[in-house]
Design goal:
The complex is a heterodimer. Chain A is an all-alpha fold. Chain A is 69% helix and 1% strand. Chain A is built from twelve helices and one strand. In chain A, α4 packs antiparallel against α8, α7 packs antiparallel against α8 and α10 crosses α11. Chain A starts with 7 loop residues before the first strand and ends with a helix. By secondary structure, chain B is α/β, with parallel strands linked by helices. Chain B has a single domain, classed as P-loop containing nucleotide triphosphate hydrolases (Rossmann fold). Helix content of chain B is 36%, strand content 27%. Chain B has eight helices and nine strands. In chain B, the strands form two sheets. Chain B has a six-stranded mixed sheet with strand order 5-6-7-3-8-9, sandwiched between helices. A three-stranded antiparallel sheet of chain B has the order 2-1-4, covered by helices on one side. The two termini of chain B are 33 Å apart. Classes of the chains: A mainly alpha, B alpha/beta. At the A-B interface, β1, α2 and α8 of A face α1, β4 and α3 of B. β1 of chain A pairs antiparallel with β4 of chain B, so a sheet runs across the interface.
Chain lengths: 274, 254
């Protein structure tokens, strides 16, 4: 508390909010840790299997989807790994963006009572997601072992893919939650959009079943590229090709940048609405 | 008027000509579709609602400052301006030090987490580093009289237990500025006395407290100065006895 004496807040002398938020996140890093911890601990506290659900959830989904679609796409070798790798990336995206929106739109009670970096919830939701995705590597490797897919050095590329996925998810979460603060309907709409979006991304089906005439359309889907850079090191055992990598890199960083600026620009109004 | 904002006075909070204006939609428009239609038709009307109008206040370091007024007078809005949550529409707020509001249940606490875990969560929300919370943990447990319950999920707590934990978690740090919004009304008599004692021990010390209450007795016994807010304007500010007498007179006349 010694340093807090020099801490002066002057509403007439505030820096750019986007930068203030960034500085705030660093100052409140212990809070981010506590929020991530709260999300993970409280979610599983009353269940018997606890944190094991993080592993069982994608595994169960993968088994269901494999059973449903295996006759359809039986020609793919290691189809379960194909599904699971796509599913893990998609689940991260769907869960973190939804969590950001919900925490800001419905959980605004804190923002109305006390100052904290308003991006805290977005950062902590991404943190929670990263813990979960790191854990989901365990069932993934298990399935690779079972289906006989080789472990290659390319797997070491995965953290890069995860970070780009995280950047894109945070950007999308920030943009949509900013809009959803004014129009809570957007939050509902988003869950529908997510479903459609998932089927427009090659998660459960192989890319080659997309008719040639529609292929160009998939290039406009950022998640198409991001899922690709996540899946290539696992399923194909290679580092993703340069073109895909650059597209994924540019798209995710731009989305994060735009999202952060847009959110910060509106953040001062949140307390009036949420 | 303050000319030199940096003058080395004893003020810890300066509020200058602050106004807060809410824009309330004339009718509640919640769907995007409705909004789009109305926007095209040019039918979006807003009602200006001045929650605070031209309020100027100075609060000195170490004092216990009371805020009174009827419901809807702007007390909570003023607290939000002080806690940096609301950026005033007009005017200037200058604050020296860290503001610690006592958080409501549901905001800074999670029902599934234990009391101890919640103290960590609550403490970091107030901006304290992890190690500092650890150092104060025993003190918090002692003040809250929770004993072994500190490791039970707080959904199992009674409202009194929660109030004790919340008050202990907010005040143990001797924060620069402590904000208490109608919190002393919960809990039993002995707890209230304990809280009042702790607040009095802050007096003339490091901590400045701002207390919002509908209980004139509490304000009289704790606060040397009080502000009376009425429909968003500052009706009167000064020694608590005088302001409260004025307030009571107006209430009786109304």
């Amino acid at each position: 508390m010694k340093t807090s004496e020099e801490l002066i807040y002057d509403s007439a002398r505030r820096g750019p909010v986007a930068l203030e938020e960034l500085r705030g996140i660093f100052q409140y890093r212990d809070l981010i840790y506590q929020l991530v911890r709260r999300d993970i601990v409280s979610r599983y506290k009353r269940s018997v299997l606890g944190i094991a659900w993080t592993l069982l959830q994608p595994l169960g989904m993968m088994i269901i989807l494999s059973l449903v679609f295996s006759t359809l796409f039986q020609s793919i070798k290691g189809y379960p790994t194909y599904i699971l790798s796509g599913l893990i990336a998609w689940t991260f995206f769907a869960q973190t963006t939804t969590a950001i929106i919900n925490q800001i739109v419905w959980g605004g009670a804190l923002l109305r009572q006390i100052y904290m970096p308003r991006t805290s919830f977005a950062v902590s939701a991404i943190g929670t997601g990263l813990v979960n995705i790191a854990l989901s590597v365990i069932p993934l490797f298990l399935i690779m072992l079972v289906t006989g897919l080789p472990f290659r050095w390319s797997l070491l590329f995965l953290p890069v893919s995860m970070l780009l996925l995280a950047a894109f998810s945070m950007g999308v979460g920030l943009i949509i939650s900013t809009v959803a603060v004014h129009f809570p309907d957007v939050a509902e709409m988003y869950s529908l959009i997510l479903t459609a979006w998932m089927y427009l991304t090659p998660i459960v089906y192989p890319e080659r079943i997309i008719p040639e005439t529609y292929r160009w359309f998939f290039n406009f889907n950022p998640m198409y590229h991001i899922v690709k850079i996540f899946r290539a090191p696992i399923f194909e055992g290679v580092i993703p090709d340069m073109k895909t990598l650059i597209v994924a890199l540019v798209v995710s960083l731009c989305t994060l940048f735009v999202g952060w600026l847009f959110f910060s620009k509106r953040a001062d109004e949140f307390a009036y609405y949420v | 008027m303050i000319t030199d904002i940096n003058s080395p006075l004893n003020d810890i909070i300066r509020i200058e000509n602050v106004s807060v204006r809410y824009l309330l939609p004339g009718e509640r428009i919640l769907t995007f579709k409705e909004y789009a239609i109305r926007l095209l038709q040019g039918r979006i009307k807003y009602i200006d609602f001045n929650a605070l109008q031209n309020v100027s206040l100075r609060i000195r370091k170490g004092e216990i400052f009371g805020i009174i007024g009827n419901n809807g007078a702007g007390k909570s809005t003023l607290l939000k301006v002080i806690s940096r949550v609301l950026i005033p529409t007009q005017g200037r707020v200058w604050i020296k030090g860290k503001v610690s509001p006592m958080l409501e249940l549901g905001a800074g606490f999670h029902p599934e987490l234990t009391g101890r875990e919640n103290v960590f969560l609550n403490g970091t929300i107030l901006g304290h580093p992890h190690h500092q919370i650890e150092e104060h943990m025993d003190e918090i447990i002692e003040f809250s009289e929770l004993g072994a319950f500190i490791d039970s999920p707080i959904r199992t707590y009674s409202s009194g237990m929660y109030a004790r934990l919340g008050f202990a978690a907010a005040t143990t740090w001797e924060p620069d500025i402590l904000i208490l919004d109608e919190v002393l009304s919960v809990g039993d008599e002995s707890f209230r006395r304990k809280c009042e004692m702790r607040m009095k021990s802050f007096r003339n010390g490091h901590t400045t407290s701002i207390l919002v209450s509908h209980s004139m007795e509490t304000v009289l016994s704790l606060c040397e100065r009080t502000a009376w807010l009425d429909h968003g304007t500052l009706r009167s500010v000064g020694p608590s006895t005088e302001v409260i007498a004025e307030y009571r007179q107006a209430q009786a006349g109304a």
